[in-house]
Amino acid sequence: MVTIPEGYTVKQIAEKLKALDVIKDVDRFIMEAQTGKFEYEFIQGIKDRPSRLEGYLFPDTYEFKKGMSEHDIINIMLKRFNDIYVKNIKVKSTYKRLYFSISFISRTWCKIYDEGDRT
């Protein structure tokens, strides 16, 4: 079981997964998050940005197995985000508002993290 806390960046998630021997390469995970092809409606509205999936990898407890591909791990986390998105957010939001909300939350958590540990 792997718990991803709220506010973790893509890099922090990759580092945690590597520390737990779930993945072998932090950079490959980050690259997959940036360039991988994922078929979720909420991703279609994302324009190029430094960390494309920042804020979309849903914080939760997951059961990842050693040797899973980076793509599969990211897809599981995006599916969890999608479940929440479809159930609670989609009908109330446009892509633009969703993007700005996710961006704001990610930046806020990064500032909080700089002020203290969230682990």
Short overview:
The protein is mainly α. The chain has helices at 10-19, 26-35, 41-44, 70-89, 95-115, and strands spanning 2-3, 61-62.
Strand order of the largest sheet: 1-2
Overall, the morphology is globular
What is the mean pLDDT?
A: 82
Order of helices and strands: EHHHEHH
Strand content: under 5%
- Count of separate structural domains: 1
Number of helices: 5
The structural class is mainly alpha
First-to-last CA distance: 15 Å
GO molecular function: lyase activity
Protein name: FIG004453: protein YceG like
Keywords: Cell membrane, Cell wall biogenesis/degradation, Lyase, Membrane, Transmembrane, Transmembrane helix
GO biological process, one term: cell wall organization
Structure write-up:
Helices cover 55% and strands 3% of the residues. By secondary structure, the protein is mainly alpha-helical. It has one domain. A two-stranded antiparallel sheet has the order 1-2. Helix 1 packs antiparallel against helix 2. It is globular. It starts with a strand and ends with a helix.
Task: Give descriptors for this structure.
globular; 5 helices; 119 residues; MLTG-like; cell wall biogenesis/degradation; 2 strands; two-stranded antiparallel sheet; mainly alpha
